[in-house]
Specification:
Layout: H1 2-16, E1 25-30, H2 34-50, E2 53-60, H3 67-80, E3 85-89, H4 92-98, H5 103-121, E4 126-128, H6 133-145, H7 150-153, E5 159-161, E6 170-172, H8 180-189, H9 206-221, H10 226-255, E7 256-258, E8 264-267, H11 268-272, H12 276-290, H13 298-307, E9 316-319, E10 323-327, E11 331-335
Parallel strand pairs: 1-2, 1-4, 2-3, 4-6
Antiparallel strand pairs: 5-6, 7-8, 8-11, 9-10, 10-11
Helix pairs in contact: 4-5, 6-9, 6-10, 12-13
C-alpha cells in the first residue's frame, strides 16, 4: 500500500507540474545511487502507458574509481528495462588544475555539457534528474551560508532551463515532492540494491556538513519540521524572486545597452536612482551574459554596483573569465577583453 502511495505521489507531481507530457522523449541522468535508480524505475514503469521514450545517461567525472562499477550497474539496469544507455567522461581533476574554478564547478559544467549533447542526439530537450526534497532543504542552507540572494533561497524548481552554456536543455525533477527516507523505503519494499557514493560522507564538502550536521541539529534541538515549513517559505521567496525578475527584465530592455561587438553599458544617472535590490539584479543579469560559468560572487556584484557611485573616471573592476567593468564619464561599461 505504501508503495502505491509513493508512486501516486510522484505521478501526480509530474502531472501537476507538467514535467512530462504524453509521447515526450526524455534523457534520464543516473548515478547508480538510490535517487536516480528510483527515478529510472518509476519513469520506465509508466513510459509505455504515457508514450514516453526514455534513454539512460551516466557521466564519469574521473574523480572516483567506483564510477566504473556504477556504469556497469546502470548499464545492466538499462538493458533489463530495454532502454538505450550511454555514458560519457571528462578528466575533471586535470581540467580543474588548468582553470580557476572549483572541482565541483568543473564537474557540474562538464556533466551538463554531456547531458545536453546526449539529449539533443536523442531528440529531446528534457533531462530528468533525481533531486528530492532533502536536496531542496540542503540547497537552501548551502545558499544561505554562501550569502545567496532570493534566487538561491527560492531553491530548485520542478522544471527549469539551464544557463546560456546549456541552452536548449530543460531539467526536470520528478522526485522533488518526496524525501530521501521515502525513496529508500520504496526501494527497500522492492528489495532493490543500489550503489553508494563515498564522497557523500566527506566532511570537506559544505553540502555534506549541512546534510549530516546542520539539518539533524535543527530538527533535534528546535523540533523544526523542515519538510513542511521550509518548502512553504521557499515558495514565498520564489514568488518574490519572479516579481523582481519581471521588473528587472522590463528595466533592462531600455536601460541595458548590448553592443554588437560584445560589450554592454548602463547609464549612471538612470541606474543610481533605482532601488538597491534592483541594482544588484541588473548587474547580475549583465554578469550572467559575460561569465558563462557563473563563477562570480556576491562581492563581485557589490564592487560593480559601487562603480556607479565612484566619482573617479576610468575606475576598473576585474571580474572572472577576463571580464572588466569600467566607469566612463556617463556610463559603466563591461567588456570581455581587458585590453579594450
Amino acid at each position: 500500500m505504501q508503495e502505491k502511495k509513493f508512486e501516486l505521489k510522484v505521478k501526480r507531481f509530474i502531472r501537476e507540474e507538467s514535467l512530462l507530457l504524453p509521447n515526450d522523449r526524455c534523457l534520464v541522468a543516473v548515478s547508480g545511487g538510490p535517487d536516480s535508480l528510483a527515478l529510472l524505475l518509476l519513469l520506465s514503469k509508466w513510459a509505455k502507458r504515457e508514450g514516453w521514450k526514455l534513454k539512460v545517461a551516466y557521466f564519469h567525472h574521473q574523480i572516483r574509481n567506483s564510477a566504473d562499477e556504477e556504469i556497469a550497474f546502470m548499464r545492466e539496469w538499462a538493458e533489463r528495462l530495454c532502454l538505450p544507455f550511454v555514458s560519457g567522461t571528462a578528466p575533471c581533476p586535470e581540467m580543474q588544475k588548468k582553470e580557476k574554478l572549483s572541482l565541483e564547478e568543473i564537474a557540474r559544467r562538464e556533466r551538463y555539457r554531456f547531458l545536453k549533447k546526449e539529449a539533443s542526439c536523442f531528440g529531446s530537450e528534457k533531462v530528468a534528474v533525481g533531486h528530492h526534497l532533502d536536496d531542496q532543504m540542503e540547497t537552501f542552507f548551502v545558499n544561505l551560508i554562501r550569502g545567496s540572494g532570493l534566487s538561491g533561497l527560492a531553491g530548485m524548481k520542478p522544471k527549469n532551463g539551464m544557463p546560456r552554456s546549456s541552452r536548449g536543455m530543460t531539467i526536470i525533477r520528478p522526485l522533488l515532492c518526496v524525501t530521501k527516507q521515502e525513496i529508500l523505503a520504496y526501494l527497500a519494499m522492492q528489495n532493490m540494491s543500489y550503489c553508494k557514493d563515498e564522497t557523500n560522507d566527506s566532511p570537506s564538502m559544505l553540502r555534506n556538513r549541512v546534510r549530516h550536521r546542520l539539518l539533524p541539529f535543527l530538527k533535534k534541538e528546535f523540533e523544526w519540521n523542515l519538510g513542511k515549513s521550509l518548502p512553504r517559505m521557499m515558495k514565498v521567496f520564489s514568488a518574490e524572486h519572479q516579481l523582481l525578475s519581471a521588473i528587472e527584465k522590463e528595466w533592462g530592455r531600455h536601460g541595458i545597452h548590448w553592443e554588437k561587438e560584445g560589450g554592454a553599458s548602463v547609464g549612471i544617472q538612470n541606474f543610481i536612482h533605482l532601488d538597491e535590490a534592483l541594482q544588484r539584479r541588473i548587474i547580475k543579469k549583465i554578469l550572467d551574459r559575460f561569465c558563462l560559468n557563473r563563477n562570480y560572487s556576491g562581492q563581485h556584484i557589490e564592487e560593480n554596483r559601487r562603480l556607479f557611485f565612484n566619482p573617479v573616471s576610468h575606475k576598473r573592476v576585474v571580474l572572472p573569465e577576463g571580464v572588466v567593468a569600467r566607469r566612463l564619464k556617463n556610463e559603466i561599461r563591461w567588456d570581455k577583453d581587458c585590453r579594450k
